[in-house]
Amino acid sequence: MRMVVLLIVAGLVDLSFPQRLSAVQWLNYLRNRHRPLMWAERLDDECPLECDCPASFPVAMYCHSRNLQHIPYVPSRIKYVYLQRNQITGIQDGVFDNATSLIWIMLHQNQLSSDRLGKNVFSKLKNLDRLYLDNNELTRVPPNLPKSIKDLRLGHNKIAKIQSSAFEGMYDLATLHLQANHIEDVGGAFKGLKSLNVLDLRKNKLKKIPYNLPEILHQLYLEFNHIESIPADFLTMYPNLQFVRLAHNKLTNEGIPPNTFNVSGLVELDLSHNKLKKIPTVSKSLENLYLQANQINEFSLSSFCDVVDMMNYSQLKVLRMEGNKISAKDVPAKAVYCLRLAVSIHL
């Protein structure tokens, strides 16, 4: 009688069940075998033991700050996965193949290295919108990134060179963070990024302003580099630029052609912590100008207003010039007409 029961049970159990699962899926099944899980299809409803999948937000998987060294199995229903602040050093191809509907992947503050990152880890994620890989050990931009990404963060890594094809076809990319790397030259890597609004290249080793930037670019951050000069047509080539930050470089007046910053679209300009001796000419439409910690020894009103009268005045609201070689007594009396909208002037 016992033998008959065993045969009946054996007939009911699908012996091919473990063979239909990947190695990661099968490992997760074994970890959860105490739960009433009978079929492979049920596995996709489970949340890995290492993570939290709240019922109030069933498409999210929270695995951050768990001392993880690997990426757990990601169910196909998941769209947002949070893996930041762990100890993940590598990702094999296929890890995300079951969850092709992913929209956000947060992998910042891990220990990822380029040599341990598969070439096609992200390639099948056609809906991926945000990918955060900042604060890792990457030495190059990951290959085969999805064309759908809009927000890509690669700051605080060890990237020294960007291949010309690194962002090829990423026409929807709007925000790109590459700060605090070892980048010396970017070539024409940004040329085809038709939607790029924000480009952050702070704290690198750039000696010149990148060329072939997207015309739509709105914010450009280049602080803490080694830039000594600016092309004469720099801002006329990029008429949509409103925020330009060039603090902590090696700029001199000789390296800035006349009227470089005299363009109507510019709203904020940061030239602090450089080697300027004179105030460069800026547009009357500029609202915020930062010139602190330079070597400026005169307050030239003509830098703000070519003509000073009741009808011609600057839109400047904030002017910072502390840490230079001038004081309040060096400001011409006519400044009250030219800078009549200023609400904050620091000398």
Automatic annotation (TrEMBL):
Origin: domain of life: Eukaryota
Major site of localization recorded for this protein: secreted
Keywords: Disulfide bond, Extracellular matrix, Glycoprotein, Leucine-rich repeat, Proteoglycan, Repeat, Secreted, Signal
A Pfam family that the UniProt record links to this protein: LRR_8
PROSITE patterns in the cross-refs: LRR
GO cellular component: extracellular space
Signal peptide (UniProt feature, chain positions): 1-18
Domain LRRNT: 46-80
Location of this chain's protein in the cell: Secreted, Extracellular space, Extracellular matrix
Family that this chain belongs to: Belongs to the small leucine-rich proteoglycan (SLRP) family. SLRP class II subfamily.
Subunit structure, interactors included: Binds to type I and type II collagen.
Function of the molecule: Affects the rate of fibrils formation. May have a primary role in collagen fibrillogenesis.
Protein name according to UniProt: Fibromodulin
